[in-house]
Amino acid sequence: MSVGKIFKFHNDLDTDQIIASQYLLLPTIDEMKTHTFESLDPDFPRKVKPGDYVVGGENFGCGSSREQAPSVLKALGVQAVVAKSFARIFYRNAINIGLLVIVCKELPDAVKTGDEMELSLTEGVAKAGGKVYSCTKLPEYMQNILSQGGLIASLNREED
């Protein structure tokens, strides 16, 4: 994994804060992604670069079960979302579409927006600010699903 910049958000981040419901009427994820985190940081879509990270606290992605929330993050090139915990449906939607979601209990309190981070899936660690943080180590089969673009893409490949 490469080094990326952190964009940090709060506990109980709601899917409506990731992508507000009025933008779900737009026809494509590419059009929706320009409104990601609009109520919290209107410049986020212009500032985030492919390979950057979103970091959150507890219960990241709570609220409605919209698949567009992880989809706009992936479309903007977010490498992974790292949080203390995830709302179950957001976590499942992220895996389904191939967005890496990692639980890391101590890192969110120790970093801020603008810090750089490196994530190692094979070691199950994140490195930021000269410190190493223990994270959920994804099993190899889960890493394979994500590397194929998510569960749906992985299942479609098995059918071929």
How would you describe what is shown here?
The structure is a single chain. α4 (68-75) crosses α5. The protein has helices at 15-18, 29-32, 44-47, 68-75, 88-97, 107-110, 140-147, 151-159, and strands spanning 4-8, 53-56, 80-83, 100-103, 116-120, 125-128, 131-134. α5 links the parallel β3 (80-83) and β4 (100-103). The protein has a seven-stranded mixed beta sheet, with helices on one face. It is an alpha/beta fold and 160 residues long. The protein has eight helices and seven strands; from the N terminus they run βαααβαβαβαβββαα.
Strand content: 15-25%
Helix content: 25-40%
Radius of gyration: 15 Å
Structural class: alpha/beta
The low-confidence runs, each spanning 5 or more residues with pLDDT under 50, are: none
Instruction: Count every helix, treating DSSP H or I runs of 4 or more residues as helices.
Output: 8
Task: Offer a few descriptive terms.
160 residues; alpha/beta; 8 helices; 19% strand
Briefly characterize the structure.
The chain has helices spanning 15-18, 29-32, 44-47, 68-75, 88-97, 107-110, 140-147, 151-159, and strands at 4-8, 53-56, 80-83, 100-103, 116-120, 125-128, 131-134.
